[in-house]
Design goal:
single chain, alpha/beta, Barwin-like endoglucanases, Alpha-Beta Plaits, Phosphorylase Kinase, domain 1, 5 domains, six-stranded mixed barrel, 30 helices, 26% helix
Length: 986
């Protein structure tokens, strides 16, 4: 952590809150803005924008310009003079392998126990890309940022590669001897003394194996540890008398009210939620019902950002809001302390609207909300008749029992160790030393266990505390099964031969049971022996077993039992949250996710302490100031970040950082939140103090990068006007500007893109999909801070209204516009940027000599320059991930979005072979294919029936900076504004 003193000249000046208020009052809160610095319009911010690209600030006179251009022309002839590279052919050509043609296999990856069904693309035996499985109802062909990044984790050179005993390399044979000796001891006492801790899993095969283990060793004890799973199973037991899984049908819910529930944000079920909500929005756009989202929350989230109305609250008042809603719906009395009048009116108005839409609405509460709140929400959904329509219940997907034994939790394991009950401890696919609450003192407790065995993907913090560490296979190079969010069983088959000396978890369990030659496929087949060979092969080809989704349950919710209202307490409230990019730290060593701008803050490479604008003003804080958070005798120091819409007396702390054995990418990044968490209160604590230390940490954020200064980039229309048809020329929105340049010859097809800002949820799946498809490098924190990140596609986050509580937010994906009158083509002195025969704005890498003139001419700021050879030092394993159909760029070359031209070429060749035109939808760009809400549509603009043309004849269609006359082929459908439920009083 690089820390500077506050007197350093690079330390940002405190924000001028008076200037911010004056500007808001002057604009009457009308305009969209991206950062507080932009809103304040500070000189330092203006200087940063001017320095970002040389086109804005002329720093070169005419003489020097001509000198540079003369040198550029002289060098242009050298661009193709490098030594030719020779390909190495196969000695023996493998069957069915054609270089350049991809093979696709259905498989699955898992996240926090839930299966994510995918298709894996391989080139000559190397997996290079993942896509959502289009045949599975959970993904429908879409994916998430974490699914896209799973391919990078497969090739991570920091993965554990061999067993270790006390930190020294060992062999599986030596562990097998240890396991056989342990089994002999356990057989003599029915397994007493064996305790197993496992991360959340829904695998039927693992459940079968553990049940068999308990038959042999009935005195063994099982525990589960999932750091941010929440309390929804405990809530269900309180509400229904049994643990159940809740399945939300957002596609059927016209009105959704969410309490502290970020169901669009990162998590094991974000994909089906986003897919279903996208479907609901499309239905509403066609006039089939409504799609209104209302959110009550304390910390800004993706779900709150997409709400038509968001109400900021303090966490301790959440129960009062739900009590008011319950009373308005006829369930009990209101809270002892009434809400403010305007909030009371709003909740009561919402209740009336929900009653009018009974059976077509949905109320949700986050898994980490208080149990009483979650229980009350179950009861309210039942009262409104939503059960069976907009939500259903089933048996838990993540298994909580094995044999006749209920799995315990981590505090229960710690208690057993302290009671001297544990002789051997197996910790499987979890990292409790890093993720456990500090009050458990797990490191010291583990020293009391005679034999500690860890199995995982990495030699992590927990592995270092164990006698034995066993390397596990990745989801993509081993056999597995798991249940997806709908309950269906997904099968995972290896896309490549197992890396290193690793084994699947099912093989490790079989080995523990005495199997000398464990086989993951055989274990899987044993679980599903009811399938004949034909059905088994069909399931593998499809990626899942049909008709295995768990049936819905008919259950009755008990009346709500409210918690006692908390007594007033001095100090601030702390909320502990998973990081929106790396979750609890399990994804921390993936450079793609570290460099991925977090959806709300656009931060990279760090975690922060979120503070409200008012609290920042009280303490004189700027972004990056190091603050000390004290709770009792425990202290955490981290950088502050001012978050518009944040609860005023609350701090948000994000997990996943401060690790010591994550790998070379993530070691010692950020701060660790564990010292402030307790096992009894893992999500929220009260009574904290905040102090400014006088030091600051430079942070790398893209929120202020690439801002078209002074230009309107987000447009919105009221719902009654948004879908009104307007007469427009079919391809372009404005007249051709007068020019001396010859007109661009017409092309067919005319490839173009339409991005629906009302559909976009800002999840960033498109960014990582583009990175995986197009071999985009990771450049590191320092380069990102300088504005040199290499993403071809960015997703800008805009706010509207008062920073204390913005009235709305919007996300805007910005790829290359592929302009018909592209300024970059005019500016390039060596013709490296040209207009292709099919209308694409093409970048020819071996012509480019790096003058960066094209970047200075581009008003959209979408071009990226290779300041260094980012890939020269990549490990061989990382190089294997690269897409062979996309050039790996070298130092001094400009690059940008190509509309995935390699996919266009592939479809064009296939159509030519079949003597037919390219069909609509046959070409999908990587960003389009990954988008769970179908916010991005690509196609032929000259085809009147193409999906890309939908919505282009409505009032909300516009082109970015269209007044410049560039005629972009990437255009937007603006945000749809819904009328407020309760109009503001004049």
């Amino acid at each position: 952590m690089h820390i500077r003193d506050e007197t350093d000249p690079q330390h940002p000046a405190p924000l001028d809150w008076t200037a911010i208020r004056e500007r808001l009052e002057g604009e009457r809160g009308a305009g969209y803005w991206r950062s507080l610095e932009q809103l304040a319009d500070e000189p330092a911010f203006a200087a940063f924008v001017e320095a970002e690209f040389p086109s804005i600030a002329p720093q070169m006179d005419r003489r020097r310009f001509l000198q540079v251009m003369g040198a550029s022309m002289a060098m242009a002839g050298l661009a193709g003079c490098s030594e030719p590279e020779k390909g190495v052919p196969y000695v023996l050509q493998p069957e069915k392998i054609i270089p350049g043609e991809a093979q696709w296999y259905a498989t699955t990856v898992t996240f926090a126990g839930y299966a994510q069904p995918v298709l894996g693309r391989t080139h000559v035996g190397r997996p290079t890309k993942l896509e959502g499985n289009p045949d599975h109802p959970v993904s429908r062909g879409a994916s998430t940022a974490t699914i896209q990044a799973a391919i990078l984790q497969l090739y991570d050179p920091d993965r554990s590669q061999a067993p270790r005993f006390k930190g020294v390399a060992a062999t599986w044979d030596s562990f097998q001897l240890e396991a056989s000796r342990l089994a002999e001891r356990l057989d003599g006492k029915a397994g007493r003394g064996l305790h197993v801790l496992i991360g959340a899993t829904s695998s039927p095969t693992l459940q079968r194996q553990f049940s068999e283990m308990l038959q042999r060793w009935p005195e063994a004890r099982l525990y589960r540890h999932e750091p941010f799973e929440g309390d929804h199973y405990r809530t269900a037991e309180r509400t229904f008398g049994r643990a159940v899984e809740t399945h939300y049908r957002f596609d059927a819910a016209e009105w959704v009210l969410s309490f502290e529930h970020d169901w669009l944000g990162l998590g094991p079920r974000e994909l089906p939620h986003a897919v279903r909500w996208g479907e609901r929005k499309r239905l509403a756009a066609k006039g089939e019902g409504e799609a209104r989202l209302l959110v009550v929350e304390s910390v800004p989230t993706l779900t709150g950002a997409k709400a038509s109305e968001r109400k900021r609250i303090e966490p301790e008042t959440l129960q009062a809001y739900v009590q008011v809603l319950s009373a308005a719906l006829g369930e009990g009395d209101g809270p002892a302390q009434p809400l403010p009048v305007e909030r009371q009116r709003w909740i009561e108005a919402v209740a009336n609207e929900l009653k009018a839409r009974a059976g077509r609405c949905l109320i949700t509460a986050g898994e980490r909300a208080p149990v009483a709140v979650q229980a009350a929400v179950h009861r309210l959904n039942q009262r409104l008749g939503n059960v069976g329509k907009t939500l259903t219940y089933s048996e838990p997907l993540v298994w909580l029992e094995a044999g006749n034994q209920r799995l315990g939790d981590l505090p229960g394991l710690v208690e057993a160790i302290r009671d001297d009950q544990v002789e051997a401890l197996l910790m499987l696919e979890c990292n409790p030393v890093d993720t456990a609450a500090a009050d458990l003192e797990l490191e010291q407790v583990l020293d009391e266990v005679p034999l500690r065995i860890h199995a995982g993907l990495y030699y992590d913090e927990t592995a270092a505390y164990c006698h034995w560490h066993l390397p596990l296979t990745h989801d993509l190079d081993g056999w597995q099964d798991a249940r997806a969010a709908d309950g269906s069983v997904c099968l995972g088959q290896p896309l490549v031969r197992t890396f290193y000396s690793s084994r699947t978890l099912s093989e490790v369990l079989a080995l523990m049971q005495g199997d000398l030659n464990p086989d993951g496929r055989a274990e899987l087949r044993k679980t599903w022996q009811s399938l004949d060979e034909r059905a088994w092969r069909q399931a593998l080809e499809r990626g899942f077993i049909e008709n295995t989704a768990l049936p819905p349950l008919t259950i009755e919710a008990a009346p709500a039992i409210w918690d006692a209202e908390p007594a007033p307490e001095e100090g601030l409230t702390l909320r502990f949250l998973p990081d929106p990019s790396v979750w609890d730290g399990r994804l921390a060593n993936l450079g793609w996710l570290q460099e991925l701008p977090k959806p709300i803050t656009k931060l990279t490479w760090d975690n922060v302490i979120g503070v409200a604008p008012k609290l920042a003003e009280e303490h004189g804080l700027s972004n990056g100031d190091l603050v000390r958070v004290t709770l009792g005798r425990r202290v955490v120091i981290g950088p502050a970040w001012i978050m518009p819409g944040h609860a005023e007396r609350t701090l948000s702390l994000y997990a996943g950082y401060g690790r010591t054995r994550a790998g070379r990418v993530a070691d010692r990044l950020g701060y660790d939140i564990a010292p402030l968490r307790t096992a009894d209160d893992p999500w929220l604590r009260r009574g904290a103090r905040l102090e400014k230390t006088g030091e600051f940490l430079p942070l790398a954020t893209t929120q202020s990068h690439h801002i078209p200064h002074g230009k309107e980039t987000i447009k919105s229309e009221p719902r009654d006007e948004a879908y009104r048809k307007v007469p427009t020329e079919p391809l372009y929105l404005f007249e051709q500007a007068k020019t001396l340049y010859p007109p661009t010859p017409p092309s067919e097809p005319v490839w173009g893109m339409t991005i629906d800002l009302d559909q976009c949820i800002g999840c960033n799946a498109c960014i990582v999909a583009c990175q995986a498809e197009n071999n985009i490098p990771v450049v590191g924190k320092e380069q990102v801070a300088m504005g040199r990140n290499m993403h071809w596609l960015r997703v800008d986050h805009y706010y509207k209204g008062d920073p204390a509580e913005p009235e709305s937010s919007a996300f805007q994906p910005v790829p290359c516009m592929h302009c018909e009158q592209a300024p970059c083509e005019v500016g390039c002195p060596v013709n490296a940027t040209v207009h292709g025969p099919d209308g694409l704005n093409e970048q020819i890498y071996n012509r480019c000599i790096g003058t960066r003139t094209c970047a200075s001419y581009c008003p959209y700021k979408v071009r990226r320059f290779n300041w260094f050879d980012w890939t020269a030092d990549d490990e061989p394993s990382i190089q294997h991930q690269r897409n062979p159909n996309v050039t790996v760029r070298s130092r001094g070359v400009m690059e940008k979005c190509t509309y995935c031209v390699q996919r266009i070429s592939e479809a064009r060749i296939a159509a030519r072979i079949d003597d037919r035109p390219v069909a609509d939808g046959e070409v999908q760009t990587a960003c389009q294919q990954s988008c769970p809400t179908q916010a991005i549509i690509f196609g032929d603009l000259s085809d009147p029936g193409a999906r890309v043309r939908e919505g282009r004849d409505t009032k909300r269609h516009y082109g970015l900076l269209e007044e410049l006359g560039t005629r972009p082929k990437t255009t937007y459908l603006g945000v749809v504004e819904l009328p407020k439920i309760v109009e503001d009083e004049p």
